[in-house]
Amino acid sequence: MTSRGLRFLIAESEPPKAREERRDSVGRSSGDTYLDILAHLAPGAACDRIRPADADSDLQSGGTISDYDAVFLTGSPLALYDETSEVRRAVAFMRATFTSGTPAFGSCAGLQLATVAAGGTVRPNRSGPEAGFARRITATDAGRTHPMLAGRPAAYDAPSIHTDEVVTLPTDAVLLASNRATVVQAAEIRHENGVFWGVQYHPEIGLDEVGGALRRQASSLVESGLARTCAAVEEQAVLIDAFHREPQRRDLAWRLGLDDQVSDSEKRQIEIRNFINALLTHGRSLRP
Fold first, then answer.
1. Tens-digit pLDDT profile for residues 123-139
2. DSSP conformation class of 54
């Protein structure tokens, strides 16, 4: 089956300031990153973008969420437990996505947004930021047979940087993967008419974006005790940048403690590819 003819909606929840800081840092916003990855994984699919946290956010086509085959929710610095207008707008958008029956995939804040919209809870990470890479993510019994994680080994690492975590999953949600730092690393959420597959980590980003994220959050990483100085954060970011340019270098893989689950982009992006394949094979329900 082919992705040609599919219509995807990218929901970029970064507030304007965060979008520009990310573009200044790595040359693209979270929405730009998803546009790039979907062009690669689903050639021929049409992609639109919406910024649900913004006050003036509307679908450019004048259509509805139901007009799309899937919604992709990006990462964002929004704290979903804060009662701000940006958070209320983003949550309302996700609730409308569930109501529409349009399947959705999300990473990092995308998982948190779907959780809150469906009745679950989010809080600051109890153990501090999970920064750079999530280590030894392990599938649950349900996750070992779930199609989103098909092709992942028993334990794997993934790009990750987040300061919040899911505390309570909604009713009719299934926990798919965990690690020692963050209990909810992957989940499926079914709510009202819709289904959401999501991960706390970032299968969509390149290693250059990991380095950029560390640089943007250097001060908070020092405050949390993950680094002694901002210079130490920069040293780590330089190593990651070098690994991005030369992912075949065994010395950098050894120094960073990473394998091909991170260095190989095809393996790193597997959850998004599995979601698209499920959509092509099974339609909006994502069920066989």
1. 999 989 999 999 999 99
2. S
Residue 34: name the closest of 3, 4, 71, 59 by CA: 71
| Max CA distance (Å), the chain | 52
pLDDT tens digits along 61-99 = 668 999 999 999 999 999 999 999 999 999 999 999 999
Sequence ranges of the domains in the chain: 7-204+268-285, 208-256
**Helical pair 30-41 and 16-26, crossing angle rounded to 10 deg:** 60
Dihedral sign computed on CA atoms, order 118, 119, 124, 126: negative
CATH superfamily of 7-204+268-285: Class I glutamine amidotransferase (GATase) domain (3.40.50.880)
- Cα(23)–Cα(29) distance, integer angstroms: 5
Give, for 166, the enclosing helix (H) or strand (E): strand 164-168
Residue count of the chain: 288
Distance CA 275, CA 273 (A): 5
Asked if residue 79 lies in contact with residue 42, where contact means CB atoms within 8 angstroms, the answer is no
Enumerate the active-site residues. Answer: 108, 202, 204
In 169-224, which residue ranges form alpha helices assigned H by DSSP?
207-216, 218-223
